[in-house]
Amino acid sequence: MSKKRFHFDSVRFIIFLKVFLSHLPLVIFPAFHFLQKTGAERFFFILSGFLITFIVLNEKVKNQSFNFIKFITKRTLRIVPLYYLIVTFAFLTPVILNLLQLPSSDKGYDPKLIWSMTFMENYKMMLERDSANVSP
User: What is the pLDDT of residues 106-122, one digit of tens each?
Assistant: First the structure.
């Protein structure tokens, strides 16, 4: 990995962390109020787009061609396992909270496993004009 790309990945991680922390329930973590409405999500996606474009152009210059199937396969194998790990954790969170006897809320959006496993959860929320529950 080149040093320049490492710096971009580092900045992308810091922005990701800021976005992640901004999604915490602020009632429990009032110190994170400053993270709301910062535009970090937009910057994260712009930087990610730049890095993906950099990878594509770098491969094209280095190999004199670009293999789209190889690129998509690598991206899928990098993203999908983590996605399913997070979905599994999200659906186990109520059980974990119950076992640890930690407070939680069951109010708000009621996720369905089939919608989550097929990457359709956000579309279901939009169709039903519903919103996600802000606490685990």
Answer: 665 567 888 888 888 87
